[in-house]
Specification:
eight-stranded antiparallel β-sheet, alpha+beta
Length: 158
């Protein structure tokens, strides 16, 4: 997969967390994902389609990470993985994808975005709707982990 499709999501998540949650996330080394097992407890997922490219983004948070981020964004402690957390994951997924979409449009890529979906539960599965490789970028925020999965396929003939 071309880093052209990864870097905008990386920049966007860092921007969203910095501006909306007043926190800094530290990215780790990207890896190729094998299988469908989620690495966290709550996942936001969104599809993107364009004329030459289609793909999806999944952001998977450990419980500790999303409770920290949600607490910072709302200004109150978030002790449970509940509907408030699910809504926040969907909103973060939407903001990150929107930011990446803006960056990619500046590079000539046009996308339509789907509505994000949210999954809560240990050991859930994530299925991307494209056949491209799945790149996972791990992040750490205040001692807790979350992961971005980016999966795109590009049709060079289109």
């Amino acid at each position: 997969m071309n880093v052209t499709f990864i870097n905008p999501f990386l920049a966007s998540i860092l921007n969203v967390l910095s501006t909306m949650a007043n926190t800094q996330a530290r990215p780790g080394k990207p890896v190729l994902k094998k299988g469908h097992q989620a690495m966290g407890d709550v996942t936001g997922m969104i599809g993107m389609t364009g004329e030459k490219t289609r793909g999806s983004l999944a952001i998977t948070f450990t419980g500790a990470a999303i409770r920290t981020i949600t607490s910072r964004m709302l200004g109150e402690e978030q002790p449970e993985l509940d509907e408030t957390v699910a809504d926040m994951v969907g909103e973060i997924t939407n903001m990150v994808t929107g930011g990446a979409k803006r960056i990619l449009s500046e590079q000539g890529y046009r996308f339509d975005m789907a509505i994000p979906t949210t999954i809560i539960g240990k050991d859930h599965q994530i299925y991307h709707k494209t056949s491209g490789p799945i790149i996972v970028i791990p992040f750490e925020v205040e001692g807790a982990d979350f992961f971005i999965e980016v999966c795109f396929e590009h049709d060079a003939a289109a």
